[in-house]
Write a structure and sequence with these properties.
Elements lengths: L21 H17 L4 E3 L7 H12 L5 E6 L1 E3 L11 E3 L3 H11 L6 E6 L12 H14 L2 E5 L5 H9 L2 E2 L2 E2 L3 E5 L8 H9 L3 E5 L17 H14 L3 H12 L4 E2 L6 H8 L8 H8 L5 H9 L5
Parallel strand pairs: 1-2, 2-5, 5-6, 6-9, 9-10, 10-11
Antiparallel strand pairs: 3-4, 7-8
Helix pairs in contact: 1-2, 7-8
């Protein structure tokens, strides 16, 4: 729901959005949730940092009243752009016990559909994975509400953070069972740990499977020309869009629990969901494995993308 609850996101757009109106924006978001539900989507990932996304989802699940719906949310980012598409700052990161307790008070309204609670973009820099007070509080919430605890990761050192989190125990029990990680045809670093994580019964949730739009042919990225040629070829072979090919790679190349769609309009969602209609042949998976770039290169590119 990262692009559903706020007017700007780190992505590539072909056109500029029209003038923003919050009421219209919220209505479109609800319509998209209904559309996703009607097409079988039952796992929804949100966060307080995504503008009105969390409140929108909380209101929506009450009306749906469907026990098959599963919600994952996060804590650690505060949305500060006030729905201004021209804002220079969109979110503030704070991994403090105070922020955890503050955001939990709102997130808990999604119980019992809320099954997964995650540290939003866990990094070594914030010290969150070494903060005993926070870790014990998360364990307390997990035990009191039967939650799965998780982290989301970002940056070139994702795998180091993930491995560190895997080893964290509170009172002799591993704390984290869900890991939401960036993985796509360009940053394939997760493949080195995916089987190990899955074999431990942990959930791998994939975000940014379309590389913030960089999987689509773009003259600004001539370094990916061979990747674009292959993706166009495979899209024709399987009679789907490039997005479905990129998403399906994430589903077929490593053991995953969910691959998240970042769609914020219905026809993009429909195209994304076509990834459920086929499987890639092994030779095509192997061809796509060769598209990987070094994590440092991938994340240096991502840092240059604008909020738009």
């Amino acid at each position: 729901m990262a692009a559903i609850g706020r007017p700007s996101y780190i992505n590539i757009r072909a056109t500029k959005p029209s003038e923003f109106d919050l009421a219209t924006f919220r209505h479109k978001g609800i319509d998209l949730l209904d559309n996703a539900y009607d097409h079988g989507v039952r796992y929804y990932d949100t966060a307080p940092g995504y503008g009105i996304a969390e409140q929108m989802l909380a209101d929506w699940i009450i009306k749906k009243n469907d026990s098959s719906i599963e919600v994952a949310t996060k804590w650690g980012y505060t949305y500060v752009a006030n729905f201004d598409p021209n804002a220079t700052q969109h979110e503030v990161k704070e991994h403090s016990l105070k922020k955890l307790d503050e955001q939990w008070e709102k997130s808990k309204t999604m119980l019992p559909r809320l099954t997964t609670y995650q540290i939003h973009s866990a990094t070594f820099e914030t010290g969150v994975l070494e903060n005993e007070a926070i870790l014990h509080r998360l364990a307390e919430l997990r035990n009191d509400h039967n939650l799965l605890m998780g982290i989301t990761t970002t940056g070139a050192n994702q795998m180091v953070v993930l491995r560190n989190a895997l080893d964290i125990q509170i009172d002799g029990r591993e704390l984290f069972d869900v890991f939401q990680v960036t993985y796509n045809i360009f940053d394939q670093s997760l493949a080195s740990l995916a089987n190990e994580v899955s074999s431990q019964g942990k959930r791998l949730v994939i975000k940014e499977a379309l590389a913030n739009g960089r999987v689509f042919p773009n003259k600004e990225y001539p370094n990916y020309s061979s990747a674009y040629s292959l993706l166009i070829q495979l899209a024709a072979k399987y009679s789907v869009g490039i997005d479905a090919i990129a998403l399906r790679f994430c589903m077929d190349s490593i053991p995953v629990f969910k691959v998240l769609s970042g769609a914020d309009v219905a026809h993009h969602l429909a195209d994304n969901l076509r990834a459920n209609d086929f499987q890639l042949e092994n030779e095509d998976i192997e061809s796509m494995r060769k598209l990987a770039v070094k994590p440092d290169q991938y994340w240096d590119e991502r840092k240059k993308l604008d909020w738009n």
